[in-house]
Amino acid sequence: MPAAATAPVPADTRTVPSSFAGEREMLEGWLEFHRETLALKCAGLTGEQLRERAVPPSELTLLGLVRHMAEVESSWFRNRLRDEKAPPFYFTDADPDGDFHAGPDDTWEEAYATWQAQIAYAREVAAPLPLDHRGSGERQRNSGDPFTLRWIYAHMIEEYARHNGHADLLRERLDGATGD
Question: What average pLDDT does the segment 139-146 reach?
Fold first, then answer.
């Protein structure tokens, strides 16, 4: 049985991209929509709720998903697009899933700030680049081809959409809140 909601879920202020948008506007719009969706799924919950493994036996938590997406933003925009070789925030060789393993001392405020900083960086470095810009970092395993910005945008939309599905289940289990 879901716990009682601790706070009302904020109004949904996400913007769905126009069906007539150009390619870039469409890709950036859907990426922003999905970023906002994850934030909305976490809104109004306590730190304890954000760390709760609400769908046993899975170790997934909403806080873990936010930490993971901070890592994903950094990995794709810093390391693959820009070849910065940025170190991870939360995982290590000893704990390769450390982003998902938020402990009692890990806070929403820190994870959210890290995630938002990576989103801001991604927007900044991508803005002047054409969609066919080839990243200078890690290449595709199968072909050895560089990742284009277009490919990165499409992958990021997929990554957020998949994890937002997880966030839907976690949130509903935590307090009964549903919605897309």
Answer: 85
In a domain, 12, yes or no: no
pLDDT tier, 7 (very low <50, low <70, confident <90, very high otherwise) = low
The answer to whether residues 62 and 50 touch, using CB atoms and an 8 Å cutoff, is: yes
Q: The CATH number of the domain where 107 resides is what?
A: 1.20.120.450
Q: Residue 17 domain-assigned?
A: no
Structural domain of 31: 23-175
Lowest-pLDDT range, 9-13, 18-22, 73-77?
A: 9-13
Mean of pLDDT values over 7-24? 85
Q: What are phi and psi of 13, to 5 degrees?
A: -110, 15
Taking the model in full, what pTM does it have? 0.92
Query: What percent of the chain has pLDDT above 70?
Result: 95
148 has which bridge partners?
A: 134
